[in-house]
């Protein structure tokens, strides 16, 4: 499928470029890691260690299975089930306070923090966004890199408005996008509206999670 191939190409470019800039054997923190779709890409960089954060246990289990597959060389890895938008389960809290990481968790830092095609989910509220940014920065080495990809909101909304009709939806058998509201006023009752929590619904065949239209923000 072209879209998936394009997404993987973009991610490979970012990973290759910033791994080279970070230097040999970079340490990696993969936020919203899903089922480990980028594990092979990181494997080619020979990371000193790799930490994955994902809020769904079923997806973490698939990521671990992927790492254990025969064709992927092993490297030190930690897989954590936690919400990247929860201030009580940031990577700093988990590595510092959880019993299983005592003795070494405080010393884990990262040369590269990555979040691929997931950031839009963290804009539901300001608190979620701040927790996500805390995850990005709290263990990132000085001079380290954050890499990420996300949707172009202005282009998505413009396309849906142009082609989506009264239902504000576009798609085919492979994908669908529906905007959750017809208007995005800058003010309501004389007060600025919140920039957070503007809903859209997105589905991509064979993507992470259940094959149905899922809610984004």
Summarize this entry quickly.
This protein has 217 residues and is α/β, with parallel strands linked by helices.
Primary descriptors:
217 residues, Rossmann fold, four-stranded antiparallel beta sheet, five-stranded parallel beta sheet, 2 domains, 6 helices, globular
Question: Please, could you describe this protein's structure?
Answer:
The structure is a single chain. This protein is an alpha/beta fold. It folds into 2 domains: 2-149, 3-Layer(aba) Sandwich (Rossmann fold), CATH 3.40.50.150; 153-216, no CATH class. The chain is built from 6 helices and 11 strands. The protein has helices spanning 2-22, 39-43, 57-68, 91-97, 126-137, 153-163; strands at 27-31, 49-54, 77-81, 110-116, 140-149, 169-171, 175-179, 187-188, 191-192, 200-204, 214-216. The protein has a 5-stranded parallel β-sheet with strand order 3-2-1-4-5, with helices on both faces. A 4-stranded antiparallel β-sheet has the order 6-7-10-11, covered by helices on one side. Strand 8 (187-188) and strand 9 (191-192) form a beta hairpin. It is globular. The relative contact order is 0.14.
């Amino acid at each position: 499928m072209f879209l998936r191939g394009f997404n993987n190409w973009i991610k490979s470019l970012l990973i290759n470029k910033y791994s080279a800039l970070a230097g040999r054997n970079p340490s990696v923190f993969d936020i919203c890691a899903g089922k480990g779709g980028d594990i092979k890409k990181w494997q080619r960089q020979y990371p000193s260690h790799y930490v994955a954060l994902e809020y769904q246990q079923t997806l973490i289990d698939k990521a671990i299975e992927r790492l254990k597959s025969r064709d992927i060389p092993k490297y030190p890895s930690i897989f954590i089930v936690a919400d990247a938008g929860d201030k009580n389960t940031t990577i700093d809290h988990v590595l510092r306070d959880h019993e299983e990481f005592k003795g070494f968790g405080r010393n884990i830092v990262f040369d590269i923090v990555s979040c691929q095609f997931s950031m839009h989910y963290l804009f539901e509220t300001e608190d979620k966004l701040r927790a996500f940014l805390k995850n990005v920065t709290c263990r990132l080495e000085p001079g380290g890199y954050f890499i990420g990809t996300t949707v172009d909101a202005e282009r998505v909304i413009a396309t849906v408005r142009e082609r989506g009709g009264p239902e504000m939806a576009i798609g085919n058998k492979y994908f669908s996008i529906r905007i959750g509201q017809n208007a995005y006023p800058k003010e309501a009752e004389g007060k600025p509206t919140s920039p957070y929590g503007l809903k859209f619904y997105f589905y991509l065949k064979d993507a992470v999670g259940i094959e149905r239209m899922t809610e984004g923000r």
